[in-house]
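Appendix C reproduces, verbatim, an entry submitted by the partner laboratory led by Prof. M.T., so that reviewers can inspect both the input and the predicted structure.
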Amino acid sequence: MKTEIEHLEALQDIKQMMERSSRFISLSGLSGIAAGTCALIGAAFAYPIVNRAHFNAENRNAPELVLYEHDFSISQYTGNSLLNIAALTLIAAVFFAFLFTYLRSKKTNTPIWSKSSQRLTINVFLPLIVGGIYLFRLMEIGTYGLIAPGCLIFYGLALLNASKYTLIEVRYLGICEIFLGIINLWMIGKGLYFWAIGFGILHILYGSFMWWKYERKQ
C-alpha cells in the first residue's frame, strides 16, 4: 500500500513538472482583481466625458458615438481626455498585473520569463496588435461606436489564443469577453458600460476565482 502511494505521488510530481514546462501557471488572481479595479476607476473618470459627447451628439442630431461624417468628430468634445484616461488605465493595469504575477512566480519558484511565458506573450500580443491597427482605422474614419465592442472582441480573441499556454480559466474569460463584445455590436452607444463590465467586473470576478482556487492555501 505504501509503495502504491509513493508511485502516485511520483506521478503527481511528474505531472506538475510537465505542466510547468508547457504552461505558464504563475498568473496571479490578484493581477486580475487589480486590472479590473483600474478599469472601473478609468470608466468612472471617462463617464462624464462620454455623457457630454452624447449630449452634444444629440443636439446636432448625430448618431450616438457612431459618426461616419468626416465633418463631425467626437474629438471636438473630448480632446485627448479619453485617450489619456485609456493610456493611464492600461499602464496601471499592466504594472499591477506584472507586479502580482512576479510576486507569485517568486513564491512558486517559477521563472517569469521562460519559454512558456514567451509563447504566452507572443500569442497574446499578436491579436492585440492586429486589433489595435483595426481600431485605429475605425477612429480615423470616425466609427467610434464600434471601438468598445472591437476592444472586447480582440481582447477575448487574444486570451483565447493564449489560453493553451496558461491556465484553462483564461480561455473562459476570453469567451466571455468575445460574447460581451458581440452583444455590444447591437447596443451601440453603450460601449462604456460594456467596457466597464468586460475589463472591470469580469476581471475582478476572474481574479477572485483564481485567487480562491490557486492562491488561497498558499
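The chain has eight helices and no strands. Additional entries are available on request from the coordinating office.
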